[in-house]
């Protein structure tokens, strides 16, 4: 194909990586995404591309894939994608919210409550502005409740869970009963697979 460049395969590589991730082919997905980053590096002669949302999306996908394969090892990629989205988007960029949400989970596991709170508060702020992203907003509130529990604020944590439940009521069928015993797996079912 004349004038073909590997960087033109951006969308097929992104969506192909999610298909591999769903099938459990994490190493294949990781290899394809790393190759896509390398292709961009070679094509544009930039070592660490922080000016292109496409690079940010590839890094975010890498974070997801690596996290599924090796839990809590994908934070490097989420940090790098956050840096890209901070430079390429607005203060209310949904990509920024997704990165903050993922990083809040990492910091929660590391018991770095202050940083986790900063990250999740930014995600909540952004998600709350978008009606279509109410399930994402509810998930972020749930993570905030976990952070609050970790710091001993059980009353605040319970209030966050109740707020998340109120948001969820509009997104589940009437026959499903939600209790305050929410899990991340429950909430993940309400968002697209690439956001989990």
Written overview of the protein:
- This protein is an all-alpha fold and 196 residues long.
- The chain contains 9 helices and no strands.
- The chain has helices at residues 10-23, 26-44, 53-69, 75-88, 94-109, 113-127, 134-150, 154-168, 184-188.
- The longest helix has 19 residues, at 26-44.
- The relative contact order is 0.08.
- The model has no long low-confidence stretch (mean pLDDT 87).
Q: Let me know the average pLDDT.
A: 87
Amount of beta strand: under 5%
Largest sheet: none
Principal-axes geometry comes out as elongated
User: Helix proportion of residues, in percent?
Assistant: 55-70%
What is the tally of helical segments?
9
The structure class reads: mainly alpha
Span between termini? 36 Å
Reading the helices and strands in chain order gives: HHHHHHHHH
Q: Which consecutive residue ranges, at least 5 long each, have pLDDT under 50?
A: none
Rg computed from alpha carbons, rounded to a whole number of angstroms: 18 Å
Q: What's the count of strands?
A: 0
């Amino acid at each position: 194909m004349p004038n073909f460049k590997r960087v033109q395969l951006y969308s097929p590589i992104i969506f192909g990586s999610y298909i591999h991730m769903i099938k459990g082919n994490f190493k294949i997905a990781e290899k394809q995404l790393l190759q896509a980053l390398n292709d961009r590096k070679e094509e544009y002669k930039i070592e660490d591309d922080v000016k292109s949302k496409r690079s940010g999306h590839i890094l975010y996908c890498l974070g997801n894939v690596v996290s599924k394969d090796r839990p809590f090892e994908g934070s490097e990629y989420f940090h790098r994608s956050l840096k890209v989205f901070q430079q390429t988007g607005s203060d209310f960029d949904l990509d920024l919210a997704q990165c903050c949400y993922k990083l809040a989970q990492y910091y929660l596991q590391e018991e770095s409550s202050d940083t986790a709170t900063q990250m999740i508060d930014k995600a909540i702020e952004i998600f709350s502005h978008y009606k279509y992203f109410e399930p994402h907003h509810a998930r972020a509130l749930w993570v905030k409740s976990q952070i609050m529990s970790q710091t001993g604020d059980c009353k605040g944590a319970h209030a966050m869970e109740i707020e998340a439940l109120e948001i969820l009521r509009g997104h589940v069928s009437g026959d499903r009963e939600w209790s305050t015993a929410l899990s991340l797996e429950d909430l993940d079912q309400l968002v697209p697979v690439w956001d989990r």
